[in-house]
């Protein structure tokens, strides 16, 4: 057992001494003007080679790594903006759907026209019962929409149908 303990102590001491020696060697190399000059020239040469490569790739009309990185960042930015626009459109679509949309408006107008026709028929019955004057005629025809009133045009109705079909296709 004493042999194992002695050998572990010897290894630790040799390891410590070798680490110290390597540290002193590295420090002396970094302080040496010859080595630091060589390292400086190597880094300058690397920078010049990178610039020459970028110029050559530009002459060949090929993108550099920096160009590709900038393009990637811009594409990500555009993608994020597009997602924001899509989210906003979804919220608007949900609000319009919550209001009933154009299909519900058409149904409501049809129901109102039906009620107006029923009222006109009832008015004609009442006028007949009370004996309307000879020259007065009461029509049981439904009320007509005057040009000053707004109704959905065919293009609006077609657009509403397209939106409704798109919503149905999107939820499927």
Describe this structure in words.
By secondary structure, this protein is mostly helical. Helices cover 81% and strands 0% of the residues. It is elongated and about 130 Å long. The two termini are 78 Å apart.
Order of helices and strands: HHHHH
On the 0 to 100 scale, the average pLDDT is: 81
Percentage of residues in helical conformation: over 70%
End-to-end separation: 78 Å
Structural class: mainly alpha
Main traits of this protein?
single chain; 172 residues; mainly alpha; 5 helices; 81% helix
Topology:
Layout: H1 2-31, H2 33-59, H3 65-98, H4 101-130, H5 154-171
Short description:
With 172 residues, this protein is an all-alpha fold. It has helices at 2-31, 33-59, 65-98, 101-130, 154-171.
